Request: fold
Amino acid sequence: MLTFVGLGLYDERSVTVEGQDALRNADRAYAEFYTSRLVGTTVEDLEAYHGQSIEVRDRAGVEQHPEDMLRAAEDEDVVFLTAGDTMISTTHVDLRMRAVERGIDTRVVHGVTAQSAAAGLTGLQNYRFGKAVTLPFPYAHGGEGVPPSMVESIEANRERGLHTLVYLDIKVGEVPGKAHDDDEFMTGDVAASLLQEWDDVLGVVVARAGSPEPTVVADRLSALSEGEFGGPLHLLVIPGTLHHLEADALCDLCGAPADLVEASLV
Reply:
């Protein structure tokens, strides 16, 4: 059996009870933290809290060389862990399909996602989000500013009145599961600074979703580019047209300027 477990958003306690049971009862546990990371904990704390040894794999060890994990899952109960949900954004459908092709039973224990948390913290309605995008560091895509394909996706959402969730790039060190001085986490102010060159519209920075003290701030992108939002992980939301309840939530929960919000009302 190969069970995919989403660990949630922040620390060792963010996993669901079902996911916790699967992890504690497993014969083997593997994890990857190159697509996202639980910034409120360490691998050692995860192991201690759940009473389970966890082998952290790098990208090649998951995507190119998963044979040892699959062999183990043929005879043992194996869990594969990621931050968030293993099948949303940090998708591992390919690994699951490889297991199914070998006749291995699989299941998915879902975790809280950044997408649902962003809707809940901002007050924007989840069903009014369009296609999500990822904003890479400029050096990572070989160009300057914002990739044209990303701008096109945001504009297509806005033409339909839909909100856009912008995932912000992370670059982590080479040793799996360990923090490094050269780890990079794009922050909301950097993202806003890049995007304001496209259009200085209303944006919402969501920082440390899932933590005890998240930060949520709404303003023009130019104003957000001057802000300080604390430690990672950060997200940025570009709202589309707003229902009056969404507008009230952005003002009351996120501190958005009333005149800016009124301009986006349906």
In short: The chain has a mean pLDDT of 93. The first helix runs from residue 17 to 25. Residues 114-262 form a domain with the Methyltransferase, Cobalt-precorrin-4 Transmethylase; Domain 2 fold (CATH 3.30.950.10).
